[in-house]
User: Fold this.
Amino acid sequence: MKNLNKKLAVVAGGVAVSAGAFAQASGVDVTAVTSSISSVTTSVVAVGGAVLAVSATVWGFRKIGGFLGR
Assistant:
């Protein structure tokens, strides 16, 4: 059990050191990536809405055809 505690302490120390190293890398400019994702999201929503509209129309015609006995 003592060996396990020692190993866990070493792992926890490594994680703490690693987190400190990543915290210093704050000089990254992400505005281009953010605007690119925003423009892609708009396109995906438009295409998804069109596919959903076509699917709903097909479903509606099938239901109406079922009600009419075709």
Residues 31-68 form the longest helix (38 residues).
